[in-house]
Structures are given as structure tokens and as C-alpha cells.
User: Which sequence fits this backbone?
């Protein structure tokens, strides 16, 4: 965790709406178009977990503006999330926490069928939704973690007024559900494209 001293609480602005922005990280260096068999999916998942951003990753102006206007940035501890925050607002105080990691998918797929990596990711997520998998975070555990993540973001919003999370597609969806259930006004379906943002107010 690294937090700059210049990110001071903004108690003088407590009359303004608190703001939490959920953003997805930028495009990763690992190619999602490469075709692999199901047997190769485990190797790809391990590669993806360690991947940083693509060399040509460039945040759009809207995302840059929102990140730089926020009082504080938050990321998961995965490299693609941390590097995205560094591109969005390199001089902003940033907190990195594993509670914001993407939800795992089952990585063992016994199939010789060859599909794009992106297709295998979708299929693995569907399999995860269907039942529990040994060694993989369950749906219940993921929802519990999303509740913890939402409460953490709320605490930061109470303290600083505005928070920008550089998170992950599926887990941001779970966080959004938790925030809406806790009275935050925003989209039921946060943006899932790279660099996409969704704002929640209270």
C-alpha cells in the first residue's frame, strides 16, 4: 500500500455528493485472440495473471480526466491494474489491495478443441457460474469479497470525497451491485471495455 501525504481528507466538502468511479484496467500484453486448446488454458491463465499492459495502451481522455479529478486511486494488486493507474494519474496517491482482484475462473479444461483465448475465458466464467470448483473462489465467497470491497470504497469516499478504482470487469459488476444495494446511485451494469468507467454517487 502506498498513500501520499498530500491526499488529505476533504471534510470541508462533506456537503457535496460522494463519488466512487469503477473503471476497468487497460488492455493487457497477453494476446486474447491467440487460438489455444482447452488443455493449454491453465498455462494461459497463469500468463494472464502475471501480465502487465500492452505497450501501446493509452487511456482515453474521459478516463484520464476522471482519474485525475479524483482525490485518490485504488487498484487491485495485479500488475495490469497497477500499471493502468500509473498511466491514468501517475502523481496521484494510490492504494493497492488484493480485495479488488478479479474473480478466478476454473483453469483446468480437458479439451482438445481449439478456440480463441477470449472465448475460453467466457466459457470458463460460465462453468464457474454453474457450480463450485475445487481451489477456485466460489460465487458466495466472491459476493462476500465484493461486499468487503464496497465497504472499503465507501470508507475512502467518506474520507476523501471521491475515489477512482482501477479494477476488473466481472468483479466491478459485483461491486456495483453491492454499492447500489447500499444506496449508491449508478448503473446496474458498469462498463466492461478496457478503460471504461462508471460513476456512483451518494
Assistant:
Amino acid at each position: 500500500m502506498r498513500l501520499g501525504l498530500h491526499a488529505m481528507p476533504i471534510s470541508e466538502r462533506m456537503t457535496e455528493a460522494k463519488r466512487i468511479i469503477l473503471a476497468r484496467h487497460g488492455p493487457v500484453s497477453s494476446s486474447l485472440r491467440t487460438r489455444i486448446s482447452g488443455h493449454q488454458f491453465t498455462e494461459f491463465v497463469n500468463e494472464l495473471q502475471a501480465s502487465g499492459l500492452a505497450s501501446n495502451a493509452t487511456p482515453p481522455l474521459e478516463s484520464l480526466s476522471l482519474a485525475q479529478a479524483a482525490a485518490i486511486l485504488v487498484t487491485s494488486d495485479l500488475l495490469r491494474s497497477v500499471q493502468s493507474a500509473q498511466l491514468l494519474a501517475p502523481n496521484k496517491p494510490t492504494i493497492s489491495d488484493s480485495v479488488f482482484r478479479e474473480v478466478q475462473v476454473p483453469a483446468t479444461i480437458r479439451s482438445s478443441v481449439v478456440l480463441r483465448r477470449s472465448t475460453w475465458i467466457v466459457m470458463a466464467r460460465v462453468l464457474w457460474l454453474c457450480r463450485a470448483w475445487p481451489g477456485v473462489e466460489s460465487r458466495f465467497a466472491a459476493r462476500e469479497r465484493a461486499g468487503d470491497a464496497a465497504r472499503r470504497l465507501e470508507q475512502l469516499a467518506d474520507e476523501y470525497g471521491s475515489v477512482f478504482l482501477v479494477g476488473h470487469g466481472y468483479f466491478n459488476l459485483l461491486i456495483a451491485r453491492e454499492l447500489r444495494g447500499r444506496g449508491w446511485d449508478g448503473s446496474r451494469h458498469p462498463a466492461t471495455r478496457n478503460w471504461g468507467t462508471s460513476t456512483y454517487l451518494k
